[in-house]
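Figure 6 in text form: structure in, sequence out.
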């Protein structure tokens, strides 16, 4: 498991509206960030502004050179991502920030997964040799940079996972992104993080987040 006392090597797979601000927070905090893309040339200017802490790479290079991976592709790109680098994620700490989001007939946000299955558990089944932690899912992407800088550590960010050591690493990375980590428990306890869940897509103080998720104070 990654040593949490030093800077981390992080690969961001999907450098869009979620991956860019979160990866930027981590680069500013002193971590080594590889923004992985099928078209890394399109990220050259963005990553170049964060040098030497960040660089633009292929998906495969981001995976190979990193110990922690943030999956922040659109959910529709999940299958393509698995085909491209899924077999290389074995032994990695994978932070799943993807959202299987749909709308009900009434127009309400819902998860497109079968009832009772969380996205965290679904990811763990698809990546059985990786260690999956669910995080960075419930705050609207346009607020990830501003709230993590202008109101640093005021807002709570929920996370969930089954591996205690991995969750300690992710809690630190949430803090380094400017938010206060709130542990929801294991992957089977993470429905609140998913589309249609109790905290999706909202921002809360840590205390209000715990209350909304049904946790004891």
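Output sequence:
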């Amino acid at each position: 498991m990654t040593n949490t006392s030093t800077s981390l090597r992080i690969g961001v797979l999907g450098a869009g509206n979620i991956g860019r601000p979160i990866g930027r927070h981590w680069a500013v905090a002193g971590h080594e960030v590889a923004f992985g893309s099928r078209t890394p040339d399109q990220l050259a200017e963005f990553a170049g502004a964060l040098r030497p802490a960040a660089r633009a790479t292929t998906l495969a290079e981001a995976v190979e050179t990193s110990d922690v991976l943030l999956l922040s592709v659109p959910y529709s790109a999940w299958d393509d991502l698995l085909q491209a680098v899924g077999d290389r994620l074995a032994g990695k700490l994978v932070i799943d920030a993807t959202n299987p989001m749909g709308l009900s007939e009434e127009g309400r946000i819902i998860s497109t997964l079968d009832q009772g299955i969380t996205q965290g558990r679904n990811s763990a089944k698809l990546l059985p040799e990786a260690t999956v932690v669910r995080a960075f899912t419930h705050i609207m992407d346009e607020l990830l940079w501003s709230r993590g800088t202008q109101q640093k550590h005021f807002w709570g960010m929920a996370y969930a996972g089954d591996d205690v050591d991995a969750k300690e690493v992710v809690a630190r990375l949430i803090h380094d992104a400017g938010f206060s980590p709130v542990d929801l428990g294991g992957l089977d306890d993470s429905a609140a993080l998913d589309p249609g869940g109790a905290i999706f897509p909202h921002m809360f103080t840590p205390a209000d987040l715990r209350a909304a998720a049904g946790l004891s104070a």
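Caption detail: Strands lie at 9-13, 32-37, 54-58, 68-71, 93-96, 101-103, 109-111, 131-135, 156-161, 180-183.
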